[in-house]
């Protein structure tokens, strides 16, 4: 490994540990101001769905983007945790019998298997609303305009024009609502919405709390979009090549359901070439930031080279 790769790995691990500790605090049993009660079963299930696993890539991107802009500390951490809470909600709901019907997530029983389906639905609801509560809290940023920008950005990335809309397109791609014959443009749009939108906002959230000017924010969003696209193509490759043990979840699902991916449309070598092109595009968007952006450059390399 190169020195920059070693530094990246250490920073990713450090961020994961700090995020885990912060999530544990947010998901503690203690009732907070304005709450009536925190039901024990709900809290246990929320912790099951959000703690003890995952690379925490999304909050890492928020933290490191803010750090690139000279902003560190509690604000970027809380913004990153909000994105992670939203992401965890999406995984809980994605695993439900009505969606992907998965038994494993991060090597453990999914929430609806460990508890029950109704509890899992409520866990997703609670994680989602907690994400927005965290962003709206003055503890995240003293400037209400910054908090408003964060809430608006996460709502758009996760809602009907982003992740949720992408999930509906994903279900349609399985042929649930009629014949599905997706062209390359359709697959790219689906992936940009379902997976890419939240990854892009993870970077943009760091730009927001880091007070990036319009030009810098635009370049960082461009980087985030390329990284998000690379992540999904790499995920499609892993779904074909990696074992369920390595991934901590069932693999080969897209093939089972006859759902087209870029691996199908471009071929395996074409998909790998696509990853390389997206890495180049993402890194090119960071050119104006100089050596300070090396961690973010390593992040996009990590996304396409990961083995799980």
Automatic annotation (TrEMBL):
CDD domains named in the record: Trans_IPPS_HT (cd00685)
Cofactors demanded by this protein: Mg(2+)
Gene Ontology molecular functions: metal ion binding; prenyltransferase activity
UniProt keyword list: Isoprene biosynthesis, Magnesium, Metal-binding, Transferase
GO cellular component, one term: cytoplasm
One Pfam family named in its UniProt record: polyprenyl_synt
Xref: InterPro entries: Isoprenoid_synthase_dom_sf (IPR008949), Polyprenyl_synt (IPR000092), Polyprenyl_synt_CS (IPR033749), Prenyl_diphosphate_synthase (IPR053378)
Source superkingdom: Bacteria
Gene Ontology terms describing biological process: terpenoid biosynthetic process
NCBIfam families associated with the record: FPPsyn (NF045485)
The family this protein is said to belong to: Belongs to the FPP/GGPP synthase family.
Protein name in the entry: Probable farnesyl diphosphate synthase
């Amino acid at each position: 490994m190169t020195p920059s790769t070693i530094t990246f790995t250490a920073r990713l691990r450090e961020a994961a540990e700090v995020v885990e500790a912060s999530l544990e605090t947010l998901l503690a049993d203690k009732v907070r101001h304005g709450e009536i009660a925190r039901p024990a079963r709900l809290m246990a299930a929320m912790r099951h769905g959000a703690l003890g696993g995952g690379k925490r890539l999304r909050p890492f991107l928020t933290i490191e983007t803010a750090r690139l802009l000279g902003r560190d500390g509690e604000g970027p951490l809380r913004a990153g945790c909000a994105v992670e809470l939203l992401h965890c909600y999406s995984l809980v709901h994605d695993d439900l019998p009505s969606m992907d019907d998965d038994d494993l997530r991060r090597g453990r029983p999914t929430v609806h298997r460990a508890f029950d389906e109704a509890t899992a639905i409520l866990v997703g609801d609670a994680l989602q609303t907690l994400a927005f509560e965290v962003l709206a809290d003055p503890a995240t940023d003293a400037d209400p305009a910054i908090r408003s920008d964060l809430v608006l950005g996460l709502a758009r990335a996760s809602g009907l024009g982003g992740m949720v809309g992408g999930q509906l397109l994903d279900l349609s791609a399985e042929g649930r609502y009629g014949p599905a014959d997706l062209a390359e443009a359709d697959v790219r749009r689906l992936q940009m919405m379902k997976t890419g939108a939240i990854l892009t906002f993870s970077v943009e959230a760091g730009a927001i709390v880091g007070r990036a000017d319009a030009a810098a924010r635009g370049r960082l969003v461009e980087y985030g979009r390329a990284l998000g696209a690379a992540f999904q193509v790499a995920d499609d490759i892993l779904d074909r090549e990696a074992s369920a043990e390595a991934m901590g979840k069932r693999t080969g699902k897209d093939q089972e359901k006859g759902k087209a991916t870029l691996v199908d449309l471009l071929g395996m070598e074409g998909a790998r070439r696509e990853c390389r092109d997206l890495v180049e595009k993402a890194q090119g968007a960071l050119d104006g930031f100089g050596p300070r952006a090396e961690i973010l450059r390593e992040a996009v390399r990590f996304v396409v080279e990961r083995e799980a």
